[in-house]
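User: Predict the complex with zinc ion.
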Amino acid sequence: MAFREIARGVYMLAPQRGSFSSNIYLLGGKENVLIDSGLAVDAGRLVSSLAILGILPKNIAMVLHTHGHCDHIGGSVRFPGSQLWMSRHDGRLVNAKDASFTACAMMGQGCYPKIGEFYSGTQVFSINDYRLLAIETPGHTRGSVCFYDADAKVLFSGDTLFKGAVGRHDLASGDKQELAGSIALLSGLDAKMLFPGHGQALKEKTGENFALCNALLD
Ligand SMILES: [Zn+2]
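Assistant: Here is the predicted structure with zinc ion placed in the model:
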């Protein structure tokens, strides 16, 4: 299994069967940027999947984390020369090696990358042809963010929104009301493609998915 191009310049690495690692997205081209990095135990597979595309760890400029759970951040320890980004709330707890918050305790993990960069309220990343706005979407964790490109109509939704489901709100710092508010906020975006933190990417009927997921939290 390797990275698969799912939109122009966007590649997806789905986890191996049986792994609870997150999806990993690569914005590849002149600049190479990852969105989330999966479990630490699957980091070797991530590095070898990048190598198939001719990309070395030192070629990864940034890892943009959607939130601080261990199944999204563990692979980032392989990119010590890259900028590692996260929200201030979640990033502080990762840097404090909080095993409860990161779900490391629950999932039997113990890897904590050093988060050095924190999103501002209106953070925009220009990466190749994409302009990704980091949108604060609390609810799954307090510091969860999604990334949205208004021109490409692409939404990277982390563990906030999936195909046919919403994220858990019963973990540390999660909140059902906040999650409902975040889903409602995302529903107002003109997203045609949904690239979630787990499960399948969605390239059609995205509006119907929003309607379904809003109803789940009513
Ligand atoms: Zn999560």
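Residues 67, 69, 140, 159 surround zinc ion (CB under 6 Å).
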